[in-house]
Amino acid sequence: MSIYDIFQLMGGLALFLFGMSIMGDALEKRAGRRLKPILEQLTSHPLKAVLLGAGVTAIIQSSSATTVMVVGFVNSGIMQLRQAISVIMGANIGTTVTAWILSLTGIQSDNFWMTLLKPSTFSPILAFIGIILLLASKRHRDTAGILLGFAVLMYGMEAMSDSVSGLSQQPAFVNLLMLFSNPLFGVLVGAVVTAIIQSSSASVGILQAIAHTGSLSFGAAIPIIMGQNIGTCITAILSAIGANRNAKRVAAAHLFFNLIGTVIFLVLFYALNAVLRFSFINLPINAFYIAAIHTLFNMMTTVMLYPFIGWLEKLAIRAIPDDRKGERHVLLDERLLNTPAIALEQSRRLTAQMAGEIEVAYLKADELLDRFDEKGFDQVRDAEVKVDQYEDELGSYLVKIGAMSLPERDSQEISKLLHLIGDFERISDHAVNITEVARELHEKDIQFSPAGQEESRVMRAAVREILSLAVKAFVDNDLAAAERVEPLEEVVDLLRANIKLNHVERLRNGLCTIELGFVLSDLLTNLERTADHCSNIAVSVIELVKKDSVDGHEYLRNVHAGQYGPLFQTTYEQYLQEYDIACPVPRNGNGNGKRLADGGAGVAEEKAGV
After folding, report:
1. Do 494 and 462 contact (CB within 8 A), yes or no?
2. DSSP result, 488-526
3. Which of 74, 191, 246, 453 is the most buried (most CB within 10 A)?
């Protein structure tokens, strides 16, 4: 082997690893939208989790990426340890797909159709298609990356195979391969090489390239393949550094799974060999059989250990015991940034959780207006501090996701989420302001007039409903709920206007005081602004659901100009009757709502610029 062959080997290895990295990243981005439902499909049933792990890994061509994703899920509290172990079992099966693709390089035939299956035949075509897509359209960059990455990977594989082809004539190389027949040495070499390059698929590919020399025997290759499965655990181990204990247990379970599988497989294989004396043990192995053994090992290990998932869980817990101090899950795990689509989905889920807590805090603040207590006051305050933490962490995390190369649709969703968390946080602030109003009324032992109390209760009920609609619209992606927000928001505006007019009238008649007027003004302002933020949330949801077909500003202009037909008007009139401050008695459609309805028309015309 000359110095030029060494140069070719180094270059081929570099291209192989680079192509695998490019293809893996592009596959992950291309499959990102399909990966998002993974969060919905996660289940406590181990078999579904195994299939899920196999499917995701087969799609993104990287068990390491799947494992890191799982560590992030556990660290964030999305997934339980038992689920994670099941997913990792499936990932070990899914990663074998790469070896089968690489085994195509060993096809030897003059048949036209068989020759077409050889990567050296079709990879240049894929590369040509890929470069056309890359230059022609930004929309197909991920597809182009998959094709180009695969072509570079296969070119590197061919270069490695060519560079080592002459080694079969070198006695020193043959003697070195004979050392691998020692199971312990073979396992150690496979584990170390895989740990260095952090990819069992790449490590298996290198082994398949060496197999092209014809000097690698079954007896030497089998221990190396076992070691490669152990070495791939290094990625999960490194990813778990700095994570909580459950995430560390995922890495431990991954290591135990492969260690136990390797020991069982090797013991059984060499025990049977001692009795049966396998004739193939010293025969040369090729790329096809390497892929077959890699698949057989991972499938056998999964089948054998599947019934003992609970035992593996206990073993991981015993290896990494609980800390008396206890730990909390991080809100957003940095590891998930490796898969932007999943990171974005987790951000949306956390925003939904934030919205739910804000609704609870707001309702508590509203209760304090009727029955004030310090404990409730503190609860709303504490919730506001927690919401601020949500906003800070979500904002920073979304900015990090936005800095990555993303599809345009994901970038738009990030922009909307940033606006949404701002609106939700402001509602929390208004809830705190309402508690301040409640405390002032309590400490000064003052209250609104009976008419003022009834009017404020009506407006409070309207704001509670609009908040419920806005939260439901976002959490459930409910377009119908979102479209009911704007009619009710207009009614809230009218309620505020009418209540202020009625208050002025009461002042003139000596039925109210200026001091109470200031308190009432603060309350009305916070109620009305809460409704405004709910409107913003609903419009953002409509934009997200309808994608590129609706612009928020255009939607509001059309609504206010009466271009949304009878649906908006019917909903608007229903709310006028339901929240008519002119009729505190049950509504019976006898015209009691006329004053508010008349005022409503005026405000609607004013908003539309009439």
Report:
1. no
2. HHHHHHHHHHHHHHHHHHHHHTTSS-HHHHHHHHHHHHH
3. 74
- Tell me which H or E stretch contains 387: helix 374-402
Distance (Å, whole) CA 213 – CA 166: 7
Neighbouring-strand partners of residue 217 = 284
Torsions phi, psi of 392, nearest 5? -60, -50
Rounded distance between C-alpha atoms, residue 570 and residue 488, angstroms = 11
Give the pTM: 0.69
Residues 6+ apart with CB under 8 A from 484: 469, 571
Predicted pLDDT at 596: 45
Express each pLDDT in 401-432 by its tens digit: 888 877 777 888 898 899 999 999 999 999 99
pLDDT in tens, 504-519: 888 888 777 777 888 8
Which one-letter DSSP state was computed for residue 78?
A: S
Alpha-carbon distance of 421 to 382, in angstroms, equals: 18
Distance CA 111, CA 124 (A): 19
| Amino acid, res. 139 | R
Q: Under a CB-based contact definition with an 8 Å cutoff, are residues 400 and 337 in contact?
A: yes
Taking alpha carbons only, the member of 400, 393, 533, 409 closest to residue 467 is: 533
CA distances from residue 443 to 143, 439, 521, 522 in whole angstroms, order as listed: 66, 6, 18, 16
The DSSP H or E segment spanning 457 is helix 450-475
Nearest to residue 266, comparing CAs of 206, 216, 222, 326?
A: 222
DSSP string, 575-605: HHHHT-TT--SPP-SSSTTHHHHHHHHHHHH
Site of tokens 């991972």:
298
Residue 284 bridge partners (DSSP): 217
Distance CA 30, CA 379 (A): 44
- Hey, how many other C-beta atoms are within 10 angstroms of the C-beta on 274? 9
